[in-house]
Amino acid sequence: MTSISTQDYIIHFNQNSYTALNNYIKENSFSNIFVLVDSNTSTHCLPVLLSNLVTELTIEVIEIEAGEQHKTIDTCLGVWETLSELRADRKTLLINLGGGVVTDLGGFVACTYQRGIQFINIPTTLLSMVDASIGGKNGVDLGPIKNQIGIIKTPNMVLVDTNYLSTLSAREMRSGLAEMLKHGLIYNESYYNKLTELSDLTLDDLDQLIYDSIEIKKAIVEQDPTEQNLRKSLNFGHTLGHAIESFYLNHKTKALLHGEAIAIGMILESFLSAELLNLSMDKAQQIKNNTIKVFGKIDIPETDYAAIIDLMKFDKKNEKGTINFALIETIGKSKINCVASNELIINSFKFYNE
Ligand code: GLY
User: Which of 4, 151, 203, 217 is the most buried (most CB within 10 A)?
Assistant: First the structure.
């Protein structure tokens, strides 16, 4: 697959990626290389990366615990301290090998350590391949508030090796699919239809769908890198989805993966789109059916609505106390800065539950 060039960096795929990485290391006079992994990617992905790296430089590995609950400033502190103890300097290269937590947190650590060192993202989950590792959003959560602390700075390179997906659970794969469905819903109807119509997904199909998803995200981010307007559309499903994810974060049976929460958010926000914009209720129902077919349904009791709605006050699209939704006018066309009443939001939960 041909590499995708963005304004600031290149995304390489599969067999080309390690050649590109080795050439990049050869061309830049790095002092040393640090690889950030979590407890999963340390076992399943690090050996693959190390066997493909050709360099005389010292390679140090820093491991953090896996899971969204570790995407915190405390974890960053541990990584900063290790970098410092092991004499990382301004010419150190940090390679983030992992899912969204590793690439978001690693990017943030790289942007702040000694005021910024180079970093390369190697996403190992579907979600981080099509979303988290692309576009330069780096950061950590603050308590239950997702990505409250962070910085926008693009990586120096992204390597997408879809072979890493073979170690992923079906649940993790579904989580990534949510962001791919979102890309279709906000930007490209035929891509959305392709995703929902595929009954027999081959590995070649998957590679192409990942590639197309990255192209959509790149097109949106390049038009609005700092999220002043169009990039907000990437938050479709996220205003309610993030609140639901935060609300159930530490719940024994209902803790959701990011994509699972976003899938619910997209159903709720499709209902809002039908109520507030031109999306027909039939289409909203079709989106709900397609999504539930893949993700199933959880029970969100009425007694939880108020606390979930309350968590939306932390959404980063809010301005002057108003909660702004990114919705869809139709499949493939988004509209930003939409405002919904509490009553409508409560009805969207009922639409999901019924
Ligand atoms: N994940 C949304 C964005 O990158 O803007």
Answer: 217
User: One-letter amino acid identity for 50?
Assistant: L
Q: What is the mean pLDDT of residues 245-263?
A: 89
Tokens of 330: 């139709």
Rounded to two decimals, the pTM is 0.94
Distance 29 CA to ligand 1 centre (A): 31
Q: What is the largest CA-CA distance in the chain?
A: 62
CA distance 290 to 268: 13
Enumerate domains of the chain plus CATH numbers: 4-167 (3.40.50.1970), 170-353 (1.20.1090.10)
Phi and psi torsions of 156, nearest 5°: -80, -20
Q: Position 326: which residue type?
A: A
CA 231 / ligand 1 centre spacing (Å): 7
Ligand 1 centre distance from Cα of residue 235 (Å): 7
Rounded to 5 degrees, φ, ψ at 134 are: -110, 135
* pLDDT for res 95: 98
